[in-house]
Amino acid sequence: MSIIKSYAAKQAGADLEVWEYDAGELKPEDVEVQVDYCGICHSDLSMIDNEWGVSSYPLVAGHEIIGRVAALGETAQNKGLKVGQRVGVGWTARSCGHCDACISGDHINCLAGSLPTIANRGGFADKLRADWQWVIPLPESIDIETAGPLLCGGITVFKPLLLNNVTATSRVGVIGIGGLGHIAIKLLHAMGAEVTAFSSNPAKEKEVLEMGADRVVNSRDPEALKTLAGQFDLIINTVSVDLDWQPYFEALAYGGNFHTVGAVMKPLQVPAFTLIKGDRSISGSATGSPAELRKLMKFAGRTKVAPTTEMFPMSQINDALKHVREGKARYRVVLKADF
């Protein structure tokens, strides 16, 4: 028997309770990770509440994990990981490894269906297990207390920068300066890009500029948006609410791309000529592959990019979840394991 201690939701929307479960024998490809820190993401709340209709209970959420290798399966022992090594685990715990997407290095789009960490017993626990490919080695230079949110929120906004070949000459807009948007600003600033933050909260302006934005534009001011026509190589949307998108489409330069990582539930309405004129495009993406995650963690370690976080002991997890639910987090909440 291999007993794991966790905090689990026993039913949809319930407070989390201490729950122990037997993880069974370690599979050959698996790595068991001792959890030191775990971030809280809105996706955790969605799964706890069964908003997506796919949750099963008891549910152990948590998918922004920083920890240490505790044990290695027989096959995983030959993959470069060592017991005691500092590692991270993000949104995904498993993928098939042999479909066309996986073979090409695009594991996040596994054709057999990648398995989310929170559907595989996640990081609100003293330990968890994941396939060795998804256990990400961490550079010694990274700040382990704040690094967890990079493994979900961070990679979600880092991938569009890779897909769009962002450089120091790029002009990029970020819509929504919350858990995702604030990391995007820090990454873009570290890359040397020109960054415009679109925010509906004027009170955040000073803070956002300190994060590295070159300017902050009130996203509720139509006149301010009109003055930006034709300026951006890339605009990243991080919000899930429906907005008047047309001013943002028109703010794209020729060849510009509007990229959404915010799960807007209503269809994006865009006139065809908005795209045809200037070869503009609209795209989206999920999180990232193991290779992209490794690249992000190396970049963050070298440039000292770190999410802005608030720390709670894991024993106060229900208070921490309430803090996130009420929109009080500035800008991500991290739990410190204290079993």
TrEMBL record:
It holds the Pfam family ADH_zinc_N. Coiled coil: none annotated. Keywords: Metal-binding, NADP, Oxidoreductase, Zinc. The keyword Phosphoprotein does not apply. It is an enzyme of class 1 (oxidoreductase). Its EC number is 1.1.1.2. It comes from the Bacteria. The lineage of its organism: Bacteria, Pseudomonadati, Pseudomonadota, Gammaproteobacteria, Enterobacterales. PROSITE patterns: ADH_ZINC, D_2_HYDROXYACID_DH_1. It comes from Scandinavium goeteborgense. SUPFAM superfamilies: GroES-like, NAD(P)-binding Rossmann-fold domains. This is alcohol dehydrogenase (NADP(+)). GO terms for molecular function: alcohol dehydrogenase (NADP+) activity; zinc ion binding. Its cofactor is Zn(2+). Residues 13-335 form the Enoyl reductase (ER) domain. Belongs to the zinc-containing alcohol dehydrogenase family.
